[in-house]
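step: validate -> pass
step: tokenize input -> pass
step: predict -> running
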Amino acid sequence: MMGSKCILSVEETIFPMAEIFTISRGSRTETRVVTVSLERDGLVGRGESVPYGRYDETVEGVIADIRSMSDTMASGMTRQALQDLLPAGAARNALDCALWDLESKQSGKRVFELAGLAPPVAVQTAFTLSLATPETMRSKAQLNAHRPLLKVKLGGEGDLARLEAVRQGAPNSAIIVDANEGWTPDIYAALAPELLRLGVRMVEQPLPAGQDEALLHMQRPLPVCADESCHDRSSLPELAGKYDMINIKLDKTGGLTEALALKREAAKLGFGIMVGCMVASSLAMAPAVLVAQGADIVDLDGPLLLGEDRSNPLSYDALGVHPSNLELWG
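step: predict -> pass
step: emit ->
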């Protein structure tokens, strides 16, 4: 990137949740994201990331990491150089996606063109039901029974009752489940036949990352997807024989650049592809929609879980989530 200096700005943005959102690790009423802007010659590229405590990230720490790149960014830093200057994670994600957006505006080309991808189309996305009592989850399932794919958060005592309730509430929806590392090998072995009986199509991260060796020696009657166990391409060798799919999230890969590379490499190795997200706004989802093209499972419902979103948000309808407009990103 040549010419005038690139000015980096970073700030915290808080979005309220539409309702309390609960997984096995806790509940939240808002989501705190980091917003990056890169300005050069009057053009602004933006990116968004979600620091995640599970990976020892904080909003303050991620902002500090991003600000540490101000001088390097001002002198002209490419996306390729960024991959070596910051590790995979939320800080690199926000910068990487902002660089893609800025390059798009400078070149007059959409990001998919710059990346050598086909024009993106709408992709069907899962809708997440957060962890609650069976009665509450049945009610939520009934309200969303028109959706073709529901993602059910599990990971605690009474999971079978919760899943039974969801199936009763949404008898025709496809279901995937996410244990968020909340099960033991014995719990998974006991639940697997019940998951099949209830028509569950995939189970995500049943065992804790780093404690998933048991999957090597267990029958997997339905596909098992690595989430917390898979971050970037360096994760793949440890996943062989344990998992059938991987969940690609830009906050784990450290941006769109590595996400696309991870998708290609994982597909070559025979893994199924899921593209997921943290709870975030349309600005965070926009680059992920490009990765989601042709994926086996897409879970990009973050904005649907918020009480408010960015200006010029992504469009969600019966076809799924649509690619971003120029005013939002890319």
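step: describe -> The first helix runs from residue 59 to 67.
step: cleanup -> pass
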